[in-house]
Amino acid sequence: EAGVAQSPRYKIIEKRQSVAFWCNPISGHATLYWYQQILGQGPKLLIQFQNNGVVDDSQLPKDRFSAERLKGVDSTLKIQPAKLEDSAVYLCASSLARDREDYGYTFGSGTSLTVV
Amino acid sequence: AQKITQTQPGMFVQEKEAVTLDCTYDTSDQSYGLFWYKQPSSGEMIFLIYQGSYDEQNATEGRYSLNFQKARKSANLVISASQLGDSAMYFCAMREGTGNQGGKLIFGQGTELSVKP
Fold it and tell me: Mind listing the pLDDT tens digit for each residue in A70-81?
């Protein structure tokens, strides 16, 4: 099966600019996650979708970050305006959430964002 | 709140030897899942092994085994016969939440493993 697709792979922007990341999960995976991984740390969840509804966005900085999954398939994460501390790898993951005890989490290759 | 702790920022191991990466967790849930992931320098998160909280036997996957001690809330990863390609960051994670809405993964800080030839 095809994996989780993310684009772009790398992005460099100046602070106060905006940027958007795209994720296409594995077909049939109802749950989609966006994680932020700052260099030297473990990934931290930003937002979790179930189909096109938000399950958890408690750690999403809503004054500058937004995300959508309009048709319950692919998703876009946006940052506007970007700050230096947003420099990180943004990982998208999807899961089955049922039928398998381990939920079948699969991660994309990530988008590496550098804010200068 | 659920928490994962990895106390070893970096570890070295000689090629062909075994190594144990430590992980402790904190949760009040009765049902939970524990995971180990490998993240090479290329950045992708590679699933290694899974242990369910009700599994009585330790999980094994090839050269990877999970030493699950429920009473001590520890889930250490054992890699046998280390290879140079095992050099990477290793993350322990716990699934928070259950049911059809899925559950987010809570990650530890990671351990950087270096395998020496």
Answer: 888 999 999 999
